[in-house]
Amino acid sequence: MDKNITSRDGTSLAYESAGRGSTIVLVSGAMSTGGTVAPLAAPLSERFRVVVYDRRGRGASGDTPPYAVEREVEDLAALIEELGGEASLYGVSSGGALALRAAASGLPVRHVAVYETPYALSEEDLAERARYTEQLTAALDEGRRGDAVELFLRLTGLDEAVIEGARQSALWAGMESMAPSLAYDDAVMGDGGVPRELLASVPVPVLAIAGDASPAWMREAARAIADTVPRGTYRALQGQTHMVEPDVLAPVLAEFFGR
């Protein structure tokens, strides 16, 4: 990241941009930085000015306690103001929930696209999210960052063998360093269910996307977003999973953001 701005509460945020045209800000999800979504910036920057940033508490950005979701909305407000006063937002996973919250709050946003924002639809899944929140809070309060990362990986559906392999990898230390930000994404997701009242207040066009090779509940959650916002569209991408290919996603986003 080669540029910095200061958010309302004094937190330094790192960002970089590429391309020219109307502005799109890419919002990363849990356990990720701006670099995680940077591969999507390359194809989009052929038509747009594309901005990636490190959300607070991760990467090259700072952090200022106590955390509140409103601070992350203020971060986007500061970034949009720096970029000229108007932008479209793309959010992946829990980053999609943040993008939708930002649009609902009245920020100068033109369009919002989200990919597989993991809202729970069943009572069983909502109960699982509540248990996750309780266990995550305890692990972080007690300084058990590795356990916090494990909880998140289990929530995403990884089996124990894969999680154990991750623990033994060279990437684990970096994952533990980012563990406190898991609480931020958990807060952004609320109780984990579809926030229907909030979504109903989003005034701009919204494109909710999922991969047709992802679990069915991911597609159902994306459809629920599109059905709840006033100006929503649902799209399923053939052969894609939660790890969507940038070259498959970019043309869909370019068509939507170019309207």
Account of the protein in words:
The chain is of the alpha/beta class. It has 2 domains: 181 residues, 3-Layer(aba) Sandwich (Rossmann fold), CATH 3.40.50; 64 residues, no CATH class. Helices cover 45% and strands 18% of the residues. The chain has an 8-stranded mixed beta sheet with strand order 1-2-4-3-5-6-7-8, sandwiched between helices. Helix 1 links the parallel strand 3 and strand 4. Helix 4 packs antiparallel against helix 5. 41% of the residues are buried. The model has no long low-confidence stretch (mean pLDDT 97).
Biggest pleated-sheet summary? 8 strands, mixed
Strand order of the largest sheet: 1-2-4-3-5-6-7-8
Count of distinct strands: 8
CATH architecture type of the largest domain: 3-Layer(aba) Sandwich
Instruction: Give the strand content.
Output: 15-25%
State the gist of this model.
By secondary structure, the protein is an alpha/beta fold.
Topology:
Elements: E1 3-6, E2 12-18, E3 23-27, H1 34-44, E4 49-53, H2 69-82, E5 87-92, H3 94-104, E6 109-115, H4 123-141, H5 145-155, H6 160-167, H7 172-177, H8 182-188, H9 196-200, E7 206-211, H10 216-228, E8 232-237, H11 246-257
Parallel strand pairs: 3-4, 3-5, 5-6, 6-7, 7-8
Antiparallel strand pairs: 1-2, 2-4
Helix pairs in contact: 1-11, 2-3, 4-5
Short descriptors:
2 domains; globular; 18% strand; 259 residues; single chain; 8-stranded mixed sheet; Rossmann fold; 45% helix; alpha/beta
